[in-house]
Design goal:
Elements: E1 6-11, E2 16-21, E3 28-35, E4 43-50, H1 56-71, E5 78-83, H2 89-101
Parallel strand pairs: 2-5
Antiparallel strand pairs: 1-2, 3-4, 3-5
Length: 105
């Protein structure tokens, strides 16, 4: 079972901010956005702003969230802060589930 010490979700005019922490600090910051191109299918770009760049599960979490946000009609980018002790799939699924349950877009 995953445990989140604190979670914060806030919507701004130009982005959605999500902070999820088990360690009481911001942790790794990621930005995820949808990019419209010439093709009919959108592409999604995730980048690490600062923090752990060698954690593919964190990037996958951000990508899953931005895809859900986009399919729900939001065009705003996501800024995601993950301060996690445990980077397991179960923990990250819990983060995604919690954000989607409390969505503000």
């Amino acid at each position: 079972m995953w445990f989140m010490q604190s979670e914060f979700i806030s919507g701004y005019n130009d982005h959605i901010l999500v902070i999820a922490t088990q360690i009481g600090t911001m942790g790794t910051m990621l930005q995820a956005r949808k990019e419209e191109g010439m093709t009919s299918e959108p592409t999604f770009h995730v980048s690490v702003i600062f923090g752990k760049r060698d954690e593919p599960m964190l990037t996958a979490c951000a990508r899953q969230l931005i895809e859900h946000m986009s399919s729900s009609g939001s065009a705003r980018p996501l800024v995601l802060s993950l301060g996690l002790k445990d980077h397991s799939m179960e923990t990250l699924k819990g983060v995604v589930s919690s954000v989607l349950e409390n969505r503000i877009w």
